[in-house]
Structures
1.
Amino acid sequence: MAQPVIKTRLTQPDATQRLTAQGLHPLLARLYASRGVIQKDTLSSEWKSLLDPKLLTQNQQAAELLADHIETKKTLLVVADYDCDGATACAVAIRGLRALGAHVDYLVPNRFETGYGLSPAVVDLACQHRSGKPDLIITVDNGIASVDGVAEARLQNIKVLITDHHLPGDALPNAAVIVNPNQPGCNFPSKNLAGVGVMFYVLMALRAELRQRGHFVSKPEPKLDALIDLVALGTVADVVKLDQNNRLLVNRGIDRLRRGFMQPGIRALFAVAGRQPQLAVASDFGFIVGPRINAAGRLADMSVGIECLITDDEDRALVLARELDTFNRERRKIEATMREQALASIGEIDAQPNSAVVCVFDERWHQGVVGIVASRLKEQFYRPALAFAPGDAGEIRGSGRSIPDVHLRDVLDLVSKRQPGLIKKFGGHAMAAGLSLSQEDYAPFVLAFNQAVIDFTGKSRFEAVIETDGTLESGYANAQVAQMLEEQVWGSGFPNPLFVDEFTVDQQRLLNDKHLKLTLTRDRQRFEAIWFGHSETVGDRVRVVYRLATNHWNATVTAQLIIEHVASL
């Protein structure tokens, strides 16, 4: 693969000056301004700054439907998706609805048996649930594409409330209520709510409705902010864009963790990972806690993850967290093997004419891990990637990851329209999607997918770009500034600061045969640096793209550079 192009993010001097004058640290002012922030008050993490639940289309109808079922003591069943967003959305629903007086249980489909979403098969399982046949099914992080499943629920005399955030297809399910910021006609200012965020908004509307009905006259009103650690976890783990509203939700969640308030399951997951919640940063949700929850859905049963998040028993939470950690270790081993096999099957992809995509399939692969393999291939080759594994008899199931140039779901939709029936099912977002095919259709699909990407973008090659924030002023390269940066909420659509500078390499050595540890010098200032997952040594003079981070060791906090890219000079 060609070397990436390093570009400097455009600075905004006027906004920087304004933010500095409003009391922000000059470096923070520069970083925020280049990410579109022009006023300090838009950085507020106060609850009053949260977008009003009334702005979310059909949220009030959802509140009334739920309130009616609570008051008449009807049975509710949450049907969850099997990733971290789905698990946290389920936990928020269970904890929140029970606190508000509902009789509610959950069902999480097995991805290997019933597929994605509220299918007719899942409705059948709901009718046989341990809690009895439900009066109302509540989908979380799924449902917008479940036309057949909702139809089956209606036949079974079960109402359906859909809470979702995925993009809808050509037809909407005939549900009692649909709450989804991305459904047609919804003008909610943030289209980037995760599934867990949508469910949290439903709970806020429900509490207001119950308050209006006098539900809390003789009993205390539950504090929904106790659920915000779960909301923050699902939001970060699902890699939705961290717009102003999402950053507020994540900020509140991290603040609770740092103050020692969290669900027992989250405390336990930090413990098994050897991390301290009081030092939590947003990326911990994405790289530490989220993968352990996801591993349950990938390899086994997501109910293990959900049980970990809904239990109030600290000891049980720790047992379940250890089980999730074991799943994650196994997932890593499977992923490493699959990735090696994928790379061996691809060959020299850049030598292939008009190869705008990467598609791989192997009959030995685990369908719960193909999404991670696709993500790794996307990163390595910088083009849309799909990885497939065997599904039901004669069927293969794929998961894809994309690059900013290519809206993956729209490309799959184009393929589906051009060749109806080639794709059995598909759904997802701009950057991630899932689909199923007949195994015999794999080869024609790859050709059709590749051509659709070329036609969609006008390109068969894509240039990898690393966008940086330019040089880091030497006076700011210290532990205090590193800690200040880590305390902010960075993530998808609001990227973690990356700096680029030239250094002299004083020392370099390998850690565990896979990480390069370096000592670098710039302007007579020495830095410790590490390049994770890179085992090749570098030259004496280098241009480095890096993050400024803290390193905690023996009660001492120092600055450390986390290397993202190196070019020898």
2.
Amino acid sequence: MLTASQVYTYTRRILDAYAAVMQPLSAELDMAQNAVDILLFLANNPGLDTARDICTYRKLKPGIVSFHVDNLVRGGYLLRTRDPGDRRRCRLGCTDKAAPIIARGQALQEQFIAQMSAGLAPDVRMNPILLKPTTDVGSQVIVNGQVRGNMRAMEYYAKKREFLPDVMRAYESLALENDVIVIEGAGSPAEINLKQDDFVNMGLAKLVDAPVLLIGDIDRGGVFAQLFGTIALLEPDERARVKGTIINKFRGDRTILEPGLRQLEALCGVPVAGVVPYAQVDIDDEDSLSARFTRNTARKLLDVAVIRLPRISNFTDFSPFERYENVSVRYVDRVSSIGAPDLILLPGTKSTIADLQWLRESGLEAAILKEAARGTLIFGVCGGYQMLGRSVCDPDGVEAAGVTELRGLGLLPVDTVFHGQKVQRQTSGKFSGISGLLASLSGLSYEGYESHMGRSEQALPPLIGSGNVYGSYVHGIFDAPGIADAVLTAVCRMRGLDPAALGAFDLREYKERQYDLLADTVRAGLDMDFVYRVLRREA
């Protein structure tokens, strides 16, 4: 699943890709991109023909719309007439002079849509260095999708320069395939203690000669100090790369912020490229940043308990269950809060053995076994699936947990052995031969991905189990149409409840709406003309 930061990056890639497709036309015409977009909007949306409509649906500021509309009218591309029914309202219509521009623009839009319809598939090159914490003081180091071992912090920093060629190869191969690459920094570009060997912030920007937009999170407070202090700590050549600043997650009236923006521009010597408002968008969180862990969720028609493992990962596997109005999803980390759930989910983990030990020591193992004996549906994904088996073995110390073998919960006939080579693959197909509580899954299509060190057995089906206990290595297993519905329906019938009370839900369509909302919010908050000038090295 994508993280929140990845979703933002991919959204920016889509916006930038659109600009890259349309920019040659606006450059040839010597016409601003917003002006071309206004003509295309009016041509593509009959009935939406006022300046207010353009502001509302294109998320452009009234002043910007008025400026471009006035220029288009003067240039003979638009005709402005009074609405006979409301003399205060002006209608806009494209003239014959605009027709060739519209025809070419629509062709380019179709080209863009065709390109995007293939999707933006996640690629390991987009995150060439991945650190997956395995203990409190160490991480598994993954380079372009391949595990390079477990390292403590000092060991990693001593060796990180060795990974630079891998990073550059990833970048250079992406550069051959894409017109625009958005590089998202990790942390701060002003971490002066780490700058010498940096290649995830300003260091990489210098290596690939990239312009920089510096983003500060106002929701955390102190955003002016963040931005000015960061620029003040940069070297002169680094400061020259910063073309503008952006304030993210702003709540309230922007007019109150304006005096601070102007002073910030004077202090930093670069323009404020935008203020992105805080938006309630429901997209997948980063593991370490999720607020869902601490929210208080009252019991609803069905109650789902997700075991909050200390090193939990890929918890977004269970997001589909959160979208149902009458389903409560709780994250529990102690016996006293497990309650009497209708479904218990064991998520993935960055360290199966360490978290299995914790599960046992915390008493949650005994609670899960008790619920399983009562007939409660138990479902484990990836590391949670491994825990449900008979044993977990790590003879080569792959997880660096200090334990070579550990007894599992014994609810599934599976034995897991960890190896140095990580399994990473996309997977899809149809369930077959499922028995027990989830027999209705047979015949349904699934898709997702696997990413795990342990092998449980050869030729293992995508979902195993019977009765009321099941497990799978497939992340995203509940995302495909009908899967979450079937699971919850089975639980309802077991409980003697009407499944119709759950309501219907299309996860994919819902996610697309959320991504659209995010894109619209970002575009509305940024000076996109300025952003495109930065991309073209004109700012």
3.
Amino acid sequence: MPDWIEAAIIFTLALALSWTAGFLLYRYTMKALGRVDTFWQELVARTRGPVQMALIIMALGIATNAAALSWRGAAFMQHALMIGLIACIACVLKTAMDIWIALHLKRYRIDVEDNLLARKHVTQSRILQRVGSILIVAVGVGAALMTIEEVRQYGVSLLASAGAAGIIIGIALQSVLRNLLAGIQIALTQPIRIDDAVIVEGEWGNIEEITATYVVVRIWDMRRLVVPLTYFIDEPFQNWTRRDATLIGSVMLYLDHEVSINDLRREAERVVHASDLWNGQVFVLQVTDFTEGQVEVRVLASAPSAGKAFDLRCELREALLAYLQNEQPYALPKTRIDRLPRQADAPQGSADSGTEPDWRWEQTGPEPVLSALTDTPGDVSTSPGIPQTEDSMPAKDKTLNDLFIDTLRDIYYAERKILKALPKMQRAAQSEKLAAAFEHHRDETETHIERLQKVFELVGKAARGKTCDAIEGIIAEGEEIMEDFKGSPALDAGLISAAQAVEHYEITRYGTLRRWATELGMKEAAKLLSETLGEESAADNKLTKLAESSLNAAAQ
């Protein structure tokens, strides 16, 4: 029989036997590991190929010795098989490391609110995984090279040349090696973690990926900023979630001196408490500066994460701006103009001077508003060059229509104040029926405000409130009742009395407005006002029945 046929038969048998051995080994090993830890099951399943290949390599190595091969052929075959076996072992080691890290990280979730510990473990594991992969590859390549006989035989000369080459390569790969060492340092000290909120190079974003040499930062607008690992070792940067994800967001307001800080604080507190973004820890509104032209107000509110803190700040700005426009338009920043006389003995614009008034601008805010000081008799609104408004119009020139608009703004302000007060009364109520009545009327009040806005549209005016001292006093009395009689059997009776005082005021206002709208020929406006008047009367009757049925008796 020829030598090559004999060798072919030997190698074929070796392949068949090794493949069969690998199949049986996998089958019975998985059966034996049926109730063992998941790690070993996963390891056996994912390394089936490399293990099978290692068995084949060992079988071929035995077959090489048995086959009639030349010395050179057998040596080459043995060398190739040795390198293949080293590669299989390295593959198994890397797979085992990947499986262990994957199973380890299953215990930690970064998609929850409090994920500080999870992000710590994920960051360490990912960095060490990449460093471990590099080390396994490096050791495998080194072991494969050591199988080359020439390297061992001429080691001295090769070592000398390798030393010179190593210097050159070390210089060329200096940045790569620094990043590898920086990765190990980051894994141990953790100045950054996966999903940390950071400011890098003036950009705000989250740590998306940490590789062996660089870090990917996901910018808020979905751009990616790629930064070398050494940056986070050598350069200063901001980490907003280093110890805790909670952040305090700030909102700055620049307002006129006429602003009511207490009302603004109550509105900001209401907005914050109603927001799902607030974590309930920090809220404060303070006047942080007071200048000649404006008041600086700062609002602080905390949120559970950087993204929610940003959204909470935007929500506060929008809500407070709408509040100021509707409830305190006079508090918005202004630019005033002072009109001063050129001569002490002849006021500008007077009949004696014979000249036009001199207007001197004084910048005190971003928007110009006329505010004139004059020594001439009469209202400044009647002076040349100043347009008349509803508020500046002389009393003798005002009509029933003007009175209608003025009263409409009064009740619009009152309804909005009532809408804010009703939730407090609902929470304070001890009776479930009374609390339900307050909740129902809150919904009705929202409808009343919408109707008033339609009436404003019908008369061609902007929906704007006018401070109503009467409703302010009624609501203040109700708050005193809630404070003084808290926990008392008489609390609900007091709440009903306060609520009916509000209803009676509204009934008188809506009744008057309906009559005036009818006289002015505003049929559609009168219809809307009549609907609200009916609902206010029904609410008052409901409160009366509640009081007479049980609540007044319970208070005795």
